[in-house]
Specification:
By secondary structure, this protein is an alpha+beta fold. It has one domain. The protein contains three helices and twelve strands, in the order H-E-E-H-H-E-E-E-E-E-E-E-E-E-E. A seven-stranded mixed β-sheet has the order 5-6-2-1-8-11-10, with helices on both faces. A five-stranded antiparallel β-sheet has the order 4-3-7-12-9, with no helix packed on it. The longest helix has 16 residues. It starts with 7 loop residues before the first helix and ends with a strand. The N terminus is likely disordered.
């Protein structure tokens, strides 16, 4: 897992998510989890941002990972903490292409405030960047007739949806089961959840 500390790296990830989704604020959004995807001829790049709202929940989570109860999170404890946040953020993410599941690899992990004092109740967050190539050694022109891609995700709380946006590079989206077309060919206004995935048809430009 490639971990980078909080700061400019997460700010850049958030800027992508917020600009893509048209959100008004990077923090304290009404949804604790949000996704952004970029589809290209090479595969699918995903950004998943997960937040624990400030207050008792954030403080309790910090205390949980203070294994030696010294009031501070050591580097190993921070690593375990970050790994937990990453698992929570990505647990339910699934993308298939013509029914074949894509295999994602972590590209970058950017935690935020995991090194705060254990008594802190400040917001906790992690942004995870992942990439999955299209399955198999499909030849050039695989998209010429259009392919069916299904994106699924949900929050750990079943009745909370996950806002998402899908952008494209070198391919076109010719059909979408939800959301709205944006001027640059992307699809915004998507809300993923249990039983509410996004089905799109992708074709070469």
């Amino acid at each position: 897992m490639r971990v980078r500390t909080n700061g400019p790296a997460r700010a850049r990830c958030l800027a992508f998510l917020v600009a893509s989704a048209g959100a008004v604020s990077a923090h304290n959004l009404p949804h604790p989890k949000k996704d952004a995807f970029t589809l290209s001829a090479n595969g699918v790049r995903a950004f998943v941002d997960y937040e624990v709202n400030p207050g008792p929940d954030a403080q309790a989570m910090r205390e949980l990972f203070d294994r030696d109860s010294n009031g501070h999170l050591s580097p190993p404890e921070q690593e375990l903490f970050t790994a937990y946040l990453v698992r929570t953020a990505t647990l339910f993410l699934k993308v298939t292409a013509d029914g074949v599941p894509l295999v994602f690899k972590q590209i970058r992990v950017v935690p935020d405030r995991v090194n705060d004092d254990v008594r802190s109740s400040a917001l906790l967050a992690v942004t995870v960047e992942l990439f999955a190539p299209w399955p198999g050694a499909w030849p050039h022109g695989w998209f010429s007739s259009g392919r069916r891609v299904i994106i699924e995700d949900r929050s750990k709380i079943r009745d909370e949806d996950v806002p998402a946006v899908v952008r494209v590079m070198g391919v076109n989206i010719t059909h979408t089961s939800q959301g709205e077309a944006l001027p640059d060919g992307a699809v915004g206004g998507v809300h993923l959840g249990e039983g509410a995935g996004l089905e799109i048809k992708v074709q070469e430009k």
